[in-house]
Specification:
Elements lengths: L2 E2 L2 E2 L10 H4 L7 H39 L5 E3 L1 H30 L7 H31 L3 E3 L3 H10 L11 H34 L4 H15 L3
Antiparallel strand pairs: 1-2, 3-4
Helix pairs in contact: 2-3, 2-6, 3-4, 4-6
Length: about 230
């Protein structure tokens, strides 16, 4: 098998996904990292998908209302669109960063990375966690307090348009999809924060103790002691 950028592709095999391999205790925090990373990725994926569905529906609502009125009416919903785009972007970044770390840990657990890579990874983890938190706060405030508005037509005509296109409603907190994506996003933030913490701890451990399995490391140290005659 070829070696690409120092990665020996022969180490990639289906058995890596087995329980015994994924939760091998010889590597420090291996089991915990796999569990927490997957929680962060899956929960944020759920929030991202729900936010994407809501965004698509509000864009359709804007398009339909404006087209039906002969483009005299204009529907303002940029606030929730911005919140949902922020959610989608940072949830994708969660999957990218922790998905990559998951992949490398799964197939190449012995590989040691240069300091610049570790520092960059930590910086991205902090930025992404802050971004998910900002998306959660922004989404919570907007969904709880705000509403889309229609301008350019009379109140009666605006009501007739919303009666015709009643899903999603103008009032954001009246639609279960919006509430669902906000409620899922907060656990996603907590899982992302936990993933960032455990990423820092594991990276610092590897920098000091190396990436070899712990029992093999202890065995090697035992041989060194025997060779030097030290007690």
């Amino acid at each position: 098998m070829p070696v690409i950028w120092g990665f020996d592709l022969s180490e990639m095999h289906w058995s890596a996904f087995g329980h015994a391999n994924m939760f091998d205790r010889r590597w420090h925090l291996r089991r915990e990292r796999f569990v927490v990373y997957q929680l962060a990725m899956l929960i944020c994926l759920a929030a991202e998908c729900t936010a994407t569905y809501s965004l698509d529906k509000y864009e359709d609502l804007q398009k339909h209302v404006e087209a039906w009125s002969g483009h005299r009416a204009h529907l303002f919903n940029n606030d929730i669109i911005d919140a949902e785009i922020t959610t989608i972007v940072f949830c994708v970044m969660v999957a990218t960063l922790f998905g990559a770390d998951f992949f490398f840990l799964l197939f190449f657990p012995r590989r040691r990375y240069p300091a610049w890579y570790t520092i960059t990874k930590k910086i991205f983890a902090v930025v992404i966690t802050a971004g998910v938190f900002a998306a959660a706060v922004l989404s919570t405030v907007i969904v709880a307090r705000n509403s889309a508005t229609i301008s350019g037509v009379s109140a009666e005509e605006a009501k007739s348009l919303t009666d015709l296109y009643f899903r999603p409603p103008l009032q954001y907190n009246k639609w279960a999809v919006n509430i669902a994506y906000v409620c899922v996003l907060w656990p996603g933030f907590l899982a992302t924060a936990a993933s960032t913490v455990i990423l820092f701890i594991a990276a610092d451990w590897d920098a000091v103790h190396g990436t070899d399995p712990r029992d093999e490391t202890l065995r090697e140290k035992g041989h060194e002691v025997a060779d030097t005659g030290s007690p």
